Amino acid sequence: MTDPLHEIGEARAFAGGVTVRVVRAGWFRPDAGGFFGVVPRPLWSRLVDTDERGRLRCRLNLLLIEAGGKRILVETGTGVRMTDKDREIKGIEGGDPVEALRTVGQDPDAIDFVVLSHLHYDHAGGMLNASGRPAFSKARYVVQRDEAEAAHGDELRLAGIMEVEQLDVVRATGQLAEVNGEVELVSGVRVVRTGGHTRGSQAVLMGVERPGGRAGDPTDRAIFWGDLIPTRWQIPVRWTSAYDDYPIDAVEIRSELVARAAAEGWWCYFTHDPGALPVRIQATDRGGYRAAE
Which of 181, 204, 206, 246 has the most C-beta neighbours closer than 10 Å? Predict the structure, then answer.
């Protein structure tokens, strides 16, 4: 394999004393049909290739944010508690957030907050280490209350796909922080409930508006989309995934936030994108949106 399993991106500074790095925790291979949902193959196949089993090769991207004297990790990858059979089926390479941080010279014990965009295995599977304890012993794990409640609900669609057991261990240790809606973790870093992909999916907004600054200054703000928009391939707002539990809601919130991102020059971080990050979004002459070149 020529692509590195673990690497860390260059730090990028945003307004308000916020710095952000991408930490590559490994790879996984989701089914292309599920990943692109109702989007016809002739459209998405222009953007990406599949393997002989019809799978895409996608990154497990984490963010390491420093702001207000705190260190925030966004996402935990697949972790190390999955069976070898499941890892093979899902095409997982790596996935351990602790190893990913240590490999690039970062201390897992220095993490103050762990933000989970939602509770699917490829985002929340690394909450615990191999011994069944929280992988980040000094951190508060930030989850939307709606997401935590959905994980314990009785919806058949959700059965077995949320990391309930790991969530309950984190709760039992007193490290779970359930939030409701838009909440500022530290100055310049906010979580925002989006819904759409899951009931309590959340995005992360980084940076602040500069008083008296120019509208659309690209150094002001950034967003981590979670699975609301997992890669730059899915910037078209109607390109919902088969894994979106609430696709109508997903289209509506994506339409709102993508328009803001394009108009205000936000930098965008995508959770499964294999390319260089961050990127900006621009409007097209046909009324849509795409990654800026």
Answer: 206
Supply the DSSP string of 90-120, one letter for each residue.
HT-EE--HHHHHHHTT--GGG--EEE-S--S
pLDDT at 225 over 90: yes
Res 1: pLDDT: 46
pLDDT at residue 19, as a whole number: 96
- Per-residue exposure over 125-140, b if at least 16 CB sit within 10 Å of its own CB, e if not: bbbbbeeeebbbeebb
Q: Look at the chain and report how many structural domains it folds into.
A: 1
Mean pLDDT on 58-80: 97
CB 117 within 8 A of CB 224: yes
Quick check: is 275 in a domain?
no
What is the CA angle 100-33-152, rounded to 5? 65
The answer to the question of residue 115 being in a domain is: yes
Q: Where would I find the H helices in 49-186? A: 84-90, 97-103, 121-124, 145-151, 164-172
CATH of residue 16's domain is 3.60.15.10
Instruction: Report yes or no on 190 lying in a domain.
Output: yes
pLDDT digits (tens, 9 = 90+) for 135-174: 999 999 999 999 999 999 877 566 668 999 999 999 999 9
pTM of the complete model: 0.94
Inter-residue contact 177 to 166 (CB < 8 Å):
no
Q: Which two tokens stand for residue 161?
A: 């796909």
**Dihedral sign computed on CA atoms, order 170, 192, 112, 95:** positive
Please check whether residue 165 lies inside any domain of the structure: yes
CA distance 7 to 133: 25
Say whether pLDDT at 215 is over 90: no
Tell me how far apart the alpha carbons of residues 51 and 56 are, in angstroms, rounded to a whole number: 7
* Omega prior to 274 cis, within 30 of 0: no
Distances (CA, A) of 218 to 184, 211, 265, 281, 293: 21, 14, 5, 11, 14
